């Protein structure tokens, strides 16, 4: 007797897609993402999964991105995260706005005094 195949719900598909993206080998997430898009054939499911998975992947793998304007590179880590998609580069006192899915810096803005480390901490960081 043949078993009936059941269609996965969108929620289940998102969960599986997130798992594959988050667990992609270092530097391979774009390849995994491309394959997932072709398997899922549903942009809405993929986009929702990617919006959650890419920030987790990027921060856990400590990726670095080129800052626009020739400022250098910024590390994408939970330690430098100010809020969603904003990361502090203490070396240049800049805040970088990141597009996690494309893995690029969209904009750079000067950090406010509240976002910068205290002068006491900065003295130790630069030594």
From TrEMBL:
The keyword Zinc does not apply. InterPro entries: CapZ_alpha (IPR002189), CapZ_alpha/beta (IPR037282), CapZ_alpha_1 (IPR042489). F-actin-capping proteins bind in a Ca(2+)-independent manner to the fast growing ends of actin filaments (barbed end) thereby blocking the exchange of subunits at these ends. Unlike other capping proteins (such as gelsolin and severin), these proteins do not sever actin filaments. Heterodimer of an alpha and a beta subunit. Keywords: Actin capping, Actin-binding. It comes from the Eukaryota. This is F-actin-capping protein subunit alpha. Gene3D superfamilies: F-actin capping protein, alpha subunit. Belongs to the F-actin-capping protein alpha subunit family.
């Amino acid at each position: 007797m043949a078993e009936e195949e059941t269609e996965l719900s969108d929620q289940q598909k998102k969960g599986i897609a997130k798992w594959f993206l988050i667990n992609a080998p270092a530097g391979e997430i774009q390849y995994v993402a491309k394959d997932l898009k072709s398997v899922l054939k549903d942009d809405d499911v993929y986009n929702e999964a990617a919006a959650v998975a890419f920030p987790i992947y990027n921060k856990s793998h400590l990726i670095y991105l080129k800052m626009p304007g020739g400022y250098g590179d910024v590390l994408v880590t939970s330690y430098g995260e100010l809020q969603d998609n904003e990361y502090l580069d203490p070396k240049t006192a800049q805040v970088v706005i990141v597009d996690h899915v494309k893995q690029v810096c969209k904009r750079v803005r000067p950090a406010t005094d509240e976002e910068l480390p205290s002068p006491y901490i900065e003295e130790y960081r630069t030594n």
